[in-house]
Design brief:
Helix content is 64%, strand content 3%. The protein is built from 18 helices and 4 strands. The protein has helices at 2-33, 39-48, 58-81, 97-108, 124-154, 164-189, 217-226, 247-272, 275-303, 314-327, 342-353, 364-384, 397-423, 435-450, 465-494, 511-524, 530-535, 537-541; strands at residues 199-203, 209-213, 389-390, 393-394. The strands form 2 sheets. It has a two-stranded antiparallel sheet with strand order 1-2. Strands 3-4 form a two-stranded antiparallel sheet. A hairpin with a 5-residue loop joins strand 1 and strand 2 (209-213).
């Protein structure tokens, strides 16, 4: 019975995503290739002094992105520090400097790691004008970088890869904002609250007094999921009934997390002139997603434990949400991953260690998988003794070095951050559990931060100066360093001319390449972490 419920939920999600894939993917391709600007976009360009017709080199594109991102960190940090003076602050004071620093970087990097209880730490003004705004623009940055890399493959002998300000603006005005409005209306219809209330005092059935928080939840919930951000309005995140009231709203939230990431391969195929190439990328993403979800669901169903899971979602609904959240870069939860079985808890961690490419975050999932496709083509070229090519572009020393640097960033941040943290006296006392599980809580935190996911093993007390600072550094470097390498690769590819296909060219649109790409993803990324997993969840599970 439980297995059939799991199959029915997955089938529903697959059918809806299949129906959305072509129209949404084609629409996204139109957004980034159209030569026309909307009136509101032209007004924004004039306001900020942007020439939308000016193409940018990868270095100029990167400078604009870095300046915009770091300005976002500064503004969000200042907004938190002056919270007590803001309207609708609900009487809450300013968070500490190290917590404000962590939160500002967390939301700018699309991580949404939260070392605090949101409803008792941040007022409505900071939530709505600070966090929600970053939810939109951080997701738009990821989409812009992905599109820039796609242009690198599509263009020939070009010195430019697009205009960052145009890509950013169109991602918000034409994609994220209208879809979020529709999603918020659906969530409100499903019972998600949307108001400007503060704390309401109520008397429970046993006579106790309790404060019930309100707020603009549905509007933030929509972009939190659609933009694969993940930061909840409440501490319980999507396990809270005000954020996720029922089983069907939980399915809606899963679909919102997957809609754009699973449609972007179609966009890629349209922009490079071969939808078959998009289907190959989609096939690898879908295969990894289904395998991970199946294993996680089987592990949790075999134990049958409902600890940390909501009755209204059940085990199958919780594992579907958890797998989706960690295979994208969302990090939202409708159950507590810390309460999964030992091996079950390892799966969300492993999902993030894959690089969140199945299908990954909005934009970041596509450019991550394309980096792995470059590596797969390089390996395939070595096997047949030919210069590797992908979409008519040669993969030379510069390209493979950039791809290798991209792959090495996240494992370095995770392993070094975990090693330093566990070696500091007293840090183990921040974990709710001793031994192997306590180690897993710290490992999960750095895995989540460096991969810009944001979920957590909830037993870790992370609101300390060291943890807030260390995790913030992991989030910042884990976001910006890979983007540097992706944009450099885009510039290198755009400058090349295409080479004609020959009999020795590796076909990259066939099932064989899909299998190669999926295998490279597992071997190159996941196996890097095997020794450290053996110290934590594997040891605990065995």
């Amino acid at each position: 019975m439980l297995m059939w419920a799991a199959v029915a939920q997955v089938a529903t999600v697959v059918i809806v995503l299949a129906a959305m894939h072509r129209p949404l993917g084609d629409y996204l391709a139109h957004v980034y290739t159209s030569g026309k600007d909307w009136r509101v976009e032209r007004g924004l360009y004039r306001l900020f002094g942007v020439d939308p017709t000016a193409e940018q080199s990868w270095r100029t594109y990167l400078r604009g992105l870095l300046a915009f991102s770091l300005l976002g960190v500064l503004l969000l940090y200042l907004l938190q520090r002056v919270q007590s003076w803001l309207p609708a602050s609900l009487g809450l004071g300013a968070p500490s400097p190290h917590l404000s620093f962590n939160t500002a970087i967390s939301f700018m990097t699309n991580t949404n790691w939260q070392s605090y209880a949101p409803e008792s730490t941040l007022g409505h003004t900071v939530q709505a004008t600070g966090l929600a705004v970053q939810n939109f623009v951080s997701a738009a940055v990821g989409m812009a970088v992905a599109v820039a890399l796609v242009r690198g493959f599509a263009r020939r002998r070009a010195g430019t890869i697009g205009n960052f300000w145009v890509d950013l603006t169109r991602s918000v005005t034409r994609v994220l904002l209208p879809l979020s409005v529709l999603a918020a209306l659906v969530l409100v219809a499903g019972g998600v609250i949307q108001n400007w209330h503060g704390f309401t005092e109520v008397t429970t059935v046993v006579g106790d007094t309790q404060s019930i928080p309100g707020g603009p939840v549905a509007s933030q919930e929509a972009i939190k999921l659609l933009g694969t951000n993940g930061g909840g309005f409440f501490n319980a995140n999507s396990a809270h009934p005000f954020e996720n009231p029922s089983a069907w709203t939980s399915l809606v939230e899963v679909i919102l997390m997957l809609a754009i990431p699973f449609s972007l391969p179609r966009t890629f195929g349209r922009m490079v002139g071969s939808v078959k190439q998009g289907y190959a990328i989609l096939g690898a993403m879908a295969a990894l997603f289904l395998v991970s979800l199946t294993v996680l669901t089987a592990l949790e169903l075999s134990g049958g434990s409902m600890e940390g899971k909501e009755q209204r979602f059940g085990i199958a609904g919780t594992t579907l949400f958890g797998a989706t959240s960690t295979l994208t870069s969302t990090g939202a939860v409708n159950g507590m991953h810390d309460s999964f079985s030992a091996l079950g808890g390892m799966l969300p961690m492993l999902n993030m260690m894959l690089g969140e490419v199945a299908p990954g975050g909005v934009g970041s999932g596509l450019y991550g998988m394309l980096i792995l496709a470059v590596i797969a083509v390089f390996i395939g070229g070595l096997m047949v003794g030919r210069t590797p090519e992908y979409l008519g572009k040669k993969i030379g020393p510069r390209e493979i070095k950039l791809a290798a640097l991209y792959i090495l960033v996240t494992p370095t941040l995770v392993l070094v951050g975990t090693a330093i943290t566990v070696s500091i006296p007293g840090i183990r006392e921040l974990t709710a559990n001793p031994g192997m599980h306590g180690f897993s809580e710290i490992l999960y935190a750095f895995t989540s931060a460096a991969n810009n996911n944001g979920s957590a093993f909830a037993g870790l007390t992370a609101n300390t100066p060291w943890m807030n600072t260390a995790l913030a550094v992991a989030m910042l470097l884990g976001r910006l360093l890979p983007i540097v390498f992706v944009l450099a690769l885009a510039g290198s590819l755009a400058a090349q001319d295409t080479v004609p296909e020959t009999a020795g060219t590796l076909p990259t649109h066939r099932p064989q390449f899909v299998g190669l790409l999926a295998g490279v993803t597992v071997i190159v990324t996941a196996l890097t972490y095997f020794p450290v997993l053996a110290l934590g969840p594997l040891a605990e599970g065995l």
